[in-house]
Every structure is written in C-alpha cells, then in structure tokens.
Amino acid sequence: MNFIRPALSTDASRIAEIIITNYRVNFYQFFHNEQFYFGELNVVNMALEYEEGTEALRNTFVYDDGVIKGIIRISGYEIEKLFVEPQFQSQGIGAKLLDFAINVKNAYWLWVLEYNKRGITFYQRHGFHLTGEKIIEDEWVPLLKMSKDHNVQLRIIPHNSPEKLKLEKINEESFPISERNSIDDLYASGNDGNLDMIGIYDDCELAGFFAVRKFSKIRYMAYFAVCSEKRSKGIGSKALHLLKDFYPDCQIVNEFEAPDESNENNSIRLHRRDFYLRNGFFETGWYSFYDGTEFEIACSESEFDMQEFRKFIAYLNSIVSDHIPQPYQKNDKV
Fold this sequence. Notes:
Helix content is 34%, strand content 31%. By secondary structure, it is an alpha+beta fold. The strands form two sheets. It has a seven-stranded mixed sheet with strand order 1-2-3-4-5-7-6, sandwiched between helices. It has a seven-stranded mixed sheet with strand order 8-9-10-11-12-14-13, sandwiched between helices. It starts with a strand and ends in a 17-residue tail after the last helix.
C-alpha cells in the first residue's frame, strides 16, 4: 500500500513539528545555538511556510498511514528536505520517501550537513555519492552536495523544466540551423501529447536528449544529440540501448545521412551509419530526401513495418511542415 501523498494545508503544523523535532535532535548538538533552535525555530512560524498556495506546500509530500510520520520536499530535481519523526525511524519510512523522490519525481541530488554523518551514510546506502561540492549557508552551516549514482539514465523533461536552457544549448551546437527547430517549437509541436523530450543524463548531469514522436507502435527519433564534451565516451551507445527499453514492443525509427562516395564528408556518414548498426538498428532499404540530402531510414527491429510508418508520415504532415520523410526505395526514386 502506498502511504505517500501530496501535503495539504491542514498538514502544516504536523509538517512543522517533524522538521523542528529533527532540527533540534540532529543539528543542535553541532551548533549549540539555543536562541535559534529553541526560540526562532517554532511550529507557529514554520507552519506559515506551508499555508495553502505556498510553493513549499506544493513541493511537499507526506508519509501518512493514519499518522503523518515523515515528510519530503522536492524542488525540481533537488531533494530539499527529508525527515521522519524520531519515534518512527528505522522502519523504512525514510527509504520509501527517498525512493518516491527518485523514481516518481526524478529527483537525484541534495545538500547535506557536513557534520551529519548518519545522514550521509543513509544517502550513500541508497546510491548517492559526495560530489566534492561544498557551500557555506548563512555564513556558518557547511553543506555538502550529494548526487545519485548513475552512469547513463533517460528521463522525460517536461516543457516547464529549468533544463530547457541546457537543452537549447545542446540543440544549437549539434544541428545546423537548416536542420534545427528550437526547443520551444519542438515542445509546441507535441501539444497533442505525442512527443517525448527525453533527457540523457550522465552521472545525473544532462548530457544530451532525444526528441521522439509517438504514433501507434512507431517511435520516430526526430532528434538525437549528445553535448560536445560528452561525445566519444560511449554515452550515445548506452542511451540508444536504454531507448529500446524505454519503448518496449515499439519500432524506433530514425534517419541518418546516406553514405555517398561523391560527398566530401562520406567518412562521417559511414561512421554515423555504422554507429547505429552497431547499436541495434537495422537498415530497412528505404530512403528519404529533403534539404538537398538523402537519408537512410533505419529501424530498431529487423522487420520494418512500412505500412504503419506511412500512417505515421500522414500524421506528421498534419502537425509540422518541415523535415517530413517521403520514403522511397532506390528503384522508386524519381
């Protein structure tokens, strides 16, 4: 049974109790600041932070099995607070809240008090590591950054994500303007819910992205890019294999510039084709042509469903006006 739910304004005083109790039990011993921990820090004032409509309330979730025993606050990808009432600790509640943050809310990093060895050990036990980053908060509180251990991971990036600026930077450095749509335009073209913007994360840092259009069992890889400093490190290969797991029972279709011995960048084209074939894609025998370039169509399955792909093209024509595949086989080209 899932006991984790969004916090309500009526939970404000209980949330404040749990936070303040933990502050006093866990942190007073390091700072011995009686005025702060037993004066300024009080339930009445802290509960005001969790009133109806506040950002803190929107970002907070509680573990409630009839009694609220723990809370977690998540902002974007950061875990801002995670506390369990001391009487209910060592029952797996903290682990469940952390698992919720990671697997449901895609949170993967946090700041922890440098003196809080128990907390650091808890996070390390659940796959976090110290990144080496340190800040001093309020001139006297040393905090260490911890991040979830991952090699390469795929995560959906929503249209209102703060990662959009990074996405646009990768987009601009990866594609010539003639082949590029802005990230905002891509999101807009997916207003019908049939476009996934998927971030490629290396050690929890955004390293690239897929823009994937969805139609029936077709998953069309409209864009695939890895940032320049992360290329040639195996990240793209791992991401492609993860993408196949991301869309089980689907055909992932992509296009790459067809090899052409008369073209001066033919070696690059051959390298790119071999990259896809090496990473689980198959040549379909179909091609397309636009922007003065011939593209080869590849598929993640050995049996390419051309009939379904044609239906996808008809759908694509209804939502965007450029870069529409017009498939042909070599003996069909006019």
